[in-house]
């Protein structure tokens, strides 16, 4: 896929380099959508720069798809404002916004009686794209479906339909690309190919708004992530979120329990707190793990401890996600 | 070619491709005209020459049941069918405007309807010429009758299409939409039958009045249906 993507990138002439665009690619200020009394999402604010891959995470029913539909001009917001691909999100700008963006919905929504090429021809026509034939060849190559152009979509597997849906989203060289669960239903090889494709698009300066349940996918691909649970619970780089939510900890394992651990750990200025987490395992909360580890090692050696390991605890994006969602569950919101 | 035209043509082509591959549409397009044409054809072929003057009404009028019924079946599928298939959302996420989308769908229903309608009409005329008594043939195939057929076929088809699409934008599923579409076509069928059997006497004034009324309704249909086409309700089931 990498080779075909490179080929597809070389044919693109209308792309504006990311650095030459001014303002955010996508922004929302207090964006809210209600259906009667039911709140789909509320008070959502963020800014996404051109060329950024932005992960949009959240549990089922959090309002992710509704947010994408709203930014895609399919639904009108109840309150707040937004700009999409540099244009204010208003009913008058709907057509122009849709011309500049592409959305790959979670369900492929292909015409099952038509072939892959016929599906793409229709969409190319709806965008009034020039050189539709060449574009279709290019996007099919990019998703490794060059040989399946004449296959009827109804006879394709779920994974292949997902790829056709992705090809459809690539057709118009969108400035902002919304991908709603792009790897759902794909096998590991196809998933890796899609990840490579997203990397390639990022290099071209395409802004990607990625909705996903796969947290490892968000961690691998996204520059920043936002966690939505009707309201925006957190936004930032995965590393920043980890630091914000979890104190840095060092995990110390010794051969036998320390006779007086308080004397060893309590005297270290870099250790904020400590607790015993097993017969010979200690968890130390530190401000700076890099500064704390050497001092800790010296203190343990001086105390005559047989040290098995000193390791920094790693918190994944999944830990961040679960921590925030659990907070909501405990608070009974939303 | 303007962007608007390109978009309308893209959707129109897609619709025709889908119709060609849908057994239901093909069967509907074949069975309804066949059912409509059989009765008047038997009537004029079996009628003895002596009864030609007693014909009274115009058996040709029955053929107007084709443009009233055929497109309603196709048009009622247009929006709710896409919604059920899950293809409506990807289409609405493209730059196509609702007016363009509806126009493309209306055209895609109109073209096959006119093709079938005029083909059956030509078949009826040829069969009448060949197999009916000459006196009966001349009584049936009069210039005003033929002209009315040519004129009213598209006018009725367009009206029926807008009614069908309007139902399709509001219906919850395809089956309900098609049943409502058939019910909506019944008043037109009733008028056609009443004129066939001379219960309503067709005059030039009546024909011109009906044509003018249909022309206005056909023109308004596009605007009314476009206004009723609510993207938000179609996607979420809730009014925006």
What does this structure look like?
- The complex is a heterodimer of chains A (334) and B (240).
- Chain A has helices spanning 2-10, 64-71, 94-100, 116-126, 132-142, 158-170, 188-203, 215-221, 238-245, 261-266, 289-302, 317-331, and strands at residues 26-35, 38-48, 53-57, 79-84, 87-88, 101-104, 176-180, 207-211, 224-229, 231-236, 248-254, 271-276, 281-286, 307-312.
- The relative contact order of chain A is 0.13.
- Chain A is of the alpha/beta class and 334 residues long.
- In chain A, strands 6-7-8-3-9-10 form a six-stranded mixed β-sheet, with helices on both faces. Chain A has a four-stranded antiparallel β-sheet with strand order 2-1-4-5, covered by helices on one side. Chain A has a four-stranded antiparallel β-sheet with strand order 12-13-11-14.
- With 240 residues, chain B is mostly helical.
- Chain B has one domain.
- Chain B has helices at residues 3-20, 23-46, 65-77, 80-85, 88-92, 98-131, 134-140, 143-170, 174-196, 204-228, 231-236.
- In chain B, α2 runs parallel beside α6 (98-131), α6 runs antiparallel to α8 and α8 (143-170) runs parallel beside α10.
- Chain B is elongated.
- The interface between A and B is medium-sized, with 33 and 31 residues.
CATH class of the largest domain in chain A: Alpha Beta
Structurally, the number of domains of chain B stands at 1
Major beta sheet, strand line-up of chain A? 6-7-8-3-9-10
Helix content of chain B: over 70%
Instruction: Label the overall shape of chain B.
Output: elongated
- Determine Rg of chain A (CA atoms, Å): 25 Å
Q: Which word captures the global form of chain A?
A: elongated
Total strand segments of chain B: 0
Estimated helix fraction of chain A: 25-40%
Instruction: Give the oligomer, counting copies of the same chain as homo and different chains as hetero.
Output: heterodimer
Q: What is the makeup of the main sheet of chain B?
A: none
Overall SS class of chain A: alpha/beta
Distance between the termini of chain B: 34 Å
How many helical stretches of chain A?
12
């Amino acid at each position: 896929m990498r080779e075909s993507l490179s080929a597809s990138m070389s044919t693109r002439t209308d792309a504006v380099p990311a650095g030459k665009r001014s303002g955010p690619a996508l922004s929302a200020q207090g964006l809210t959508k209600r259906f009667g009394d039911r709140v789909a999402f509320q008070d959502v604010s963020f800014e996404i720069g051109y060329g950024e891959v932005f992960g949009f995470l959240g549990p089922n029913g959090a309002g992710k798809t509704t947010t994408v539909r709203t930014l895609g001009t399919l639904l009108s917001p109840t309150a707040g404002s937004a700009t999409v691909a540099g244009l204010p999100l208003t009913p008058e700008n709907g057509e122009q916004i849709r011309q500049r963006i592409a959305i790959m919905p979670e369900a492929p929504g292909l015409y099952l009686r038509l072939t892959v090429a016929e599906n793409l021809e229709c969409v190319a026509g709806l965008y009034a794209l020039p050189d539709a034939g060449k574009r279709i060849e290019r996007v099919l190559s990019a998703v490794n479906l060059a040989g399946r152009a004449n296959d009827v979509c109804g006879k394709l597997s779920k994974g292949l339909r997902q790829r056709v849906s992705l090809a459809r989203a690539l057709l118009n060289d969108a400035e902002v690309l919304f991908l709603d669960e792009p790897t759902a239903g794909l096998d590991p090889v196809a998933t890796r190919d899609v990840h490579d494709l997203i990397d390639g698009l990022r290099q071209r300066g395409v802004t990607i708004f990625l909705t996903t349940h796969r947290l490892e996918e968000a961690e691998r691909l996204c520059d920043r992530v936002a966690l939505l649970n009707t309201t925006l619970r957190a936004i930032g780089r995965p590393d920043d979120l980890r630091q914000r939510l979890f104190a840095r900890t060092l995990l110390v394992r010794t051969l036998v329990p320390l006779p007086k651990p308080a004397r060893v750990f309590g005297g270290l200025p870099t250790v904020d707190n400590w607790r015993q987490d097993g017969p010979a395992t200690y968890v130390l909360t530190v401000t700076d793990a890099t500064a704390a580890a050497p001092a800790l090692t010296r203190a343990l050696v001086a105390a005559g401890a047989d040290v098995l390991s000193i390791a920094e605890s790693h918190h994944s994006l999944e830990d961040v996600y679960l921590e925030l969602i659990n907070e909501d569950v405990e608070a009974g919101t939303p | 070619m303007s962007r608007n035209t390109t978009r309308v043509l893209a959707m129109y082509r897609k619709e025709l491709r889908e119709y060609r591959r849908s057994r239901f549409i093909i069967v509907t397009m074949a069975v309804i005209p066949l059912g409509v044409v059989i009765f008047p054809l038997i009537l004029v072929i079996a009628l003895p020459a002596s009864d030609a003057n007693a014909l009274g009404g115009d058996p040709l009028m029955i053929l107007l049941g084709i443009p009233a019924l055929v497109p309603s079946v196709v048009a009622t599928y247009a929006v709710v069918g896409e919604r059920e298939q899950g293809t409506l959302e990807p289409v609405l996420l493209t730059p196509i405007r609702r007016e363009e989308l509806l126009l493309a769908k209306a055209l895609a229903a109109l073209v096959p309807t006119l093709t079938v309608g005029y083909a059956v009409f030509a078949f009826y005329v040829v069969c009448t010429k060949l197999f009916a008594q000459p006196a009966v043939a001349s009584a049936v195939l009069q210039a005003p009758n033929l002209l009315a057929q040519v004129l009213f076929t598209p006018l009725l088809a367009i009206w029926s299409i807008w009614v069908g699409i309007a139902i399709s934008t509001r219906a919850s599923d395809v089956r309900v939409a098609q049943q409502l579409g058939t019910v909506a076509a019944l008043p037109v069928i009733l008028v056609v039958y009443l004129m066939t059997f001379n219960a309503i006497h067709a005059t030039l004034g009546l024909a011109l009045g009906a044509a003018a009324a249909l022309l206005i309704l056909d023109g308004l249909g596009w605007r009314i249906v476009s206004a009723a086409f609510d993207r938000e309700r179609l996607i979420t089931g809730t009014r925006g």
